[in-house]
Amino acid sequence: MLRITCVASDSDARTVKVEGRIAGEYVHELSRVACVAMEKNSRIALDMSQVEFVDHAGAALLRSLRDRGVTFVDCSSFISSLMDGGAK
Question: Is residue 88 within 8 Å of 54, Cβ to Cβ?
């Protein structure tokens, strides 16, 4: 299960809290929400403090979002390693 909540926003920045598992069908949902948020705000931060698991597709999405300028808040070292391609 994945829960996505917009927790803070101002004129050009938005923080989105992500909780649960970024895997399977939820990868597409996070992608959709992130794209909508990026259309509305120039800067996006994903609060990753409550993310429990990320699969291969989820790690690829996070890398793509990072490459598009999304920042990550409270991201575990394991998930950071996945985004850097460390766990293959």
Answer: no
